[in-house]
Amino acid sequence: MTAAEHAAAAGTATAPADRIAVALDVPTLDEARALAGTLSGHVGWFKVGLELFSAHGPSAVEAIAAYGPVFLDVKLHDIPTTVERAAARIAELGVGLLTVHAAGGRDMVRAAVSGLGDAGRVLAVTVLTSMSDLDLQSIAAPAARTQVPSLASLAVQAGAPGLVCAPKDLVAVRRTVGDDVLLVTPGIRPAGSGDDDHARAATPARALADGADLLVVGRPITRADDPAAAADAVAAGLTGA
Ligand code: C5P
């Protein structure tokens, strides 16, 4: 299947709003709750990241879960036993998607999948887009174009049902792992809006055409005057409406 055929098939199966994970990157639980309340029904997932989780821990997940499915983005990376035990505790919170670093290796990814069990799906992060090839060289790591596909394959072989990758890597990663893996991408900016701090942002339609299943969108929705309308506009952008 080509990337475009994948997008067409995927587009018919899932409502556009369900393809949006809104990043609740706010410091307080009150702000997160208010956003989740406003956006409930307009997005498919609420992403709780390190900021909110560091401030409020499990109560942040429990509070947000009242409004919709929770995607916990804490990018676990430790020895397999520790990751398995952490993932098992996270499973008890009712998390539907959990990120880990693919660079933790095969056994660590397998441990995360085992710990989370049927409660949710593990998403393996390939290479952080904040790392330039020079940064990678400075830690004796291969360039991203080599590392991303090999880490993607490793994670999928270890049982990860999904991956997080940058918009520019979607086509190569989709080609590497096939159609059955959930591809999640941040760095999404609606056409005509600014890029904020993303070096290479993609529009929702571009990311979908390139093979993404789920789009992580933060500030274009959360900082909009009307976050629900902004989320609806992103969803409309997915159908070309
Ligand atoms: O506000 P914005 O749409 O840029 O938010 C993007 C979200 O995706 C943030 O929560 C950020 O941590 C996350 N993310 C990213 N780029 C990556 C990985 C994660 O922007 N490479």
Automatic annotation (TrEMBL):
UniProt catalytic activity: orotidine 5'-phosphate + H(+) = UMP + CO2
Binding annotation for substrate: 25, 47, 73-82, 129, 189, 218-219
EC number, UniProt record: 4.1.1.23
Pfam families: OMPdecase
Catalytic machinery residues: D73 (for ompdecase activity), K75 (proton donor), K75 (for ompdecase activity), D78 (for ompdecase activity)
Domain Orotidine 5'-phosphate decarboxylase positions: 19-234
KW Lyase (keyword) present: yes
Keywords: Decarboxylase, Lyase, Pyrimidine biosynthesis
Molecular function terms from GO: orotidine-5'-phosphate decarboxylase activity
Domain of life: Bacteria
Keyword Endoplasmic reticulum assigned: no
SMART domains in alphabetical order: OMPdecase (SM00934)
Pathway listed: Pyrimidine metabolism; UMP biosynthesis via de novo pathway; UMP from orotate: step 2/2
GO biological process, one term: 'de novo' pyrimidine nucleobase biosynthetic process
Membrane-traversing stretches: none
GO CC aspect terms: cytosol
Subunit structure: Homodimer.
Family recorded in the similarity comment: Belongs to the OMP decarboxylase family. Type 1 subfamily.
NCBIfam families linked to this entry: PRK00230.1, pyrF
Role noted for this protein: Catalyzes the decarboxylation of orotidine 5'-monophosphate (OMP) to uridine 5'-monophosphate (UMP).
Name this polypeptide is given: Orotidine 5'-phosphate decarboxylase
Taxonomic source organism: Egicoccus halophilus
